[in-house]
């Protein structure tokens, strides 16, 4: 699927809002440990811009009191009205035609299928912060992990609730609670990785000096993996002293995950190209093609014509080198754009490719032989990387293996991010680049 979206900055939590969430991916069974999104360094454990994902439409919401089995029924779960409904629940007033919920500072909603969900643990975590909490099963919400809500000034502030660190982070975001911050800081100092990641979220969202410095030290001095996970965002968004140190290198490597006919991937290639021309050998760009492979069968989102082009470009890169690939792909993208429908026509794309290869004095026979014999292995290697990194969208960009680029899709924005990652930036980093984007910030 091709999606276009504008770049967003983190916002405060809101129950139907569209703020950026630093938590994504499967929540699993709702256990206390962090789920898979942390494989992606750009998706950090901040949880601060969460817009709780609830289906739009009128669907009955059943909350079943975990103590006495009382049901509260006939609540519509739409983004528009759920906030006020949950606020009513927290205030202890009657709701719908069901039984009133006892007043509490927080409520904890969990799926009954979650074996690791614990109301008693949630009550304990809330009590450590000085709050009361009531728990309710909420199977009709379709939750795969527990959610908690803190009520402040008539507003329900949502947070994920798999662990005490998540609740501490959510309460801090809602209340600026000194107690929540102090608990996270103490746990991070004691090498609790989840607490350090939560502090990283506080650093990114609130630019809180103490949180930033502690996470930076845990990564740079103690090499704590969980702290280093959030460093790329601290480096990218805040550029704080020391925040980029663990990500720096003498030469910068860019892993560029694309589909050869994805318009957004092509736009990113066209955006990176002027940066490559300026930085030359100081920037090493490695293209990876996003495909599905079963045995010897390769599939790609835009069909068999795209698979053929992925194979061709993989062979050019691996057999002839990065410079040859750039010389080819910069022309190919331009010429394909000039020919309506060419990207769906094998004869057309083959004709364009033949013309460009001839102009570059690259043997088409060599590339065709590679496509028939070696390309599958090249694409299998790409597929393994996309799986290990959790990459699904074209384009996805990683810098120096660790930092996923999520900034502006402009030559100036990319060059700035790259130049921040040199141990000693080359003089070419002083070259001005275009600040105008080449297309929508979408993905295939």
Walk me through this protein's architecture.
The chain is an alpha+beta fold and 444 residues long. Among the domains are: 176-247, no CATH class; 252-443, Glutaredoxin (3-Layer(aba) Sandwich). 42% of the residues lie in helices and 14% in strands. The chain contains 14 helices and 14 strands. The strands form four sheets. The chain has a six-stranded mixed sheet with strand order 3-2-5-4-6-7, with helices on both faces. α2 (119-128) links the parallel β4 and β5 (133-137). It is elongated, with a radius of gyration of 25 Å. It starts with a strand and ends with a strand. The model is unreliable at 1-101 (pLDDT under 50).
Give the count of helical stretches: 14
What general outline do the C-alpha atoms trace?
A: elongated
What fold name goes in the CATH topology slot of the domain at 252-443?
Glutaredoxin
| Number of beta strands | 14
Oligomer: single chain
Which structural category fits the helices and strands? alpha+beta
What is the string of SSEs from the N terminus onward? EEEHEHEEEHHHHHEHEEEHHHHHEEHE
Strand order of the largest sheet: 3-2-5-4-6-7
| CATH C-level name of the domain at 252-443 | Alpha Beta
Give the N-terminus to C-terminus distance in angstroms.
5 Å
Q: So, CATH architecture of the domain at 252-443?
A: 3-Layer(aba) Sandwich
Brief summary of the model shown:
This protein has 444 residues and is α+β, with helices and mostly antiparallel strands. Helices cover 42% and strands 14% of the residues.
Task: From the structure above, extract its key features.
14 strands, 444 residues, 42% helix, Glutaredoxin, alpha+beta, six-stranded mixed sheet, four-stranded mixed sheet
């Amino acid at each position: 699927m091709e999606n276009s979206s504008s770049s967003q900055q983190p916002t405060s939590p809101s129950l139907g809002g569209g703020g950026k969430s630093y938590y994504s991916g499967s929540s699993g069974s709702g256990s206390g440990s962090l789920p898979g999104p942390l494989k992606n360094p750009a998706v950090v454990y901040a949880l601060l811009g969460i817009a709780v994902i609830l289906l739009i439409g009128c669907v009955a919401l059943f909350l079943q009191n975990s103590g006495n089995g009382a049901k509260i029924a006939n609540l519509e779960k739409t983004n528009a009205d759920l906030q006020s409904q949950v606020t009513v629940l927290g205030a202890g007033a009657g709701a719908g035609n069901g039984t009133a919920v006892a007043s509490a500072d927080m409520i904890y909603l969990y799926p009954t299928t979650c074996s690791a969900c614990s109301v008693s643990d949630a009550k304990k975590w809330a009590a450590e912060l000085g709050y009361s909490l009531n728990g309710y099963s909420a199977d009709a919400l379709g939750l795969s992990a527990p959610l908690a809500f803190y009520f402040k000034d008539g507003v329900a502030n949502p947070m994920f609730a798999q662990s005490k660190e998540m609740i501490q982070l959510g309460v801090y975001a809602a209340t600026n609670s000194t107690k929540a911050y102090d608990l996270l800081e103490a746990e991070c100092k004691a090498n609790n990785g989840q607490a350090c990641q939560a502090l990283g979220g506080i650093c990114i969202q609130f630019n809180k000096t103490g949180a930033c410095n502690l996470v930076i030290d845990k990564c740079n001095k103690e090499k704590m993996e969980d702290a280093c996970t959030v460093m790329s965002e601290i480096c990218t968004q805040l550029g704080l002293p020391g925040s980029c140190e663990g990500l720096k290198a003498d030469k910068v490597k860019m892993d560029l995950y694309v589909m050869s006919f994805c318009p957004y991937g092509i736009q990113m290639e066209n955006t990176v190209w002027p940066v490559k021309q300026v930085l030359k050998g100081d920037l090493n760009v490695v293209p990876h093609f996003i495909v599905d492979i079963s045995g010897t069968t390769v599939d790609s989102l835009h069909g068999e014509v795209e698979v053929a082009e992925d194979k061709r470009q993989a062979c050019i890169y691996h057999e002839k080198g990065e410079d040859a690939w750039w010389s080819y792909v910069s022309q190919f993208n331009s010429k394909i754009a000039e020919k309506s429908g060419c990207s769906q026509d094998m004869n057309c794309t083959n004709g364009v490719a033949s013309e460009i290869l001839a102009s570059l004095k690259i043997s088409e026979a060599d590339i065709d032989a590679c496509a028939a014999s070696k390309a599958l292995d090249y694409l299998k290697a790409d597929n393994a990387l996309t799986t290990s990194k959790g990459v699904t969208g074209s384009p996805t960009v990683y810098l120096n293996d660790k930092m996923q680029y999520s900034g502006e899709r402009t030559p100036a924005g990319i060059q700035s991010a790259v130049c921040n990652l040199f141990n000693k930036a080359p003089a070419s980093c002083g070259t001005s680049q275009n600040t105008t984007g080449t297309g929508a910030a979408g993905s295939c």
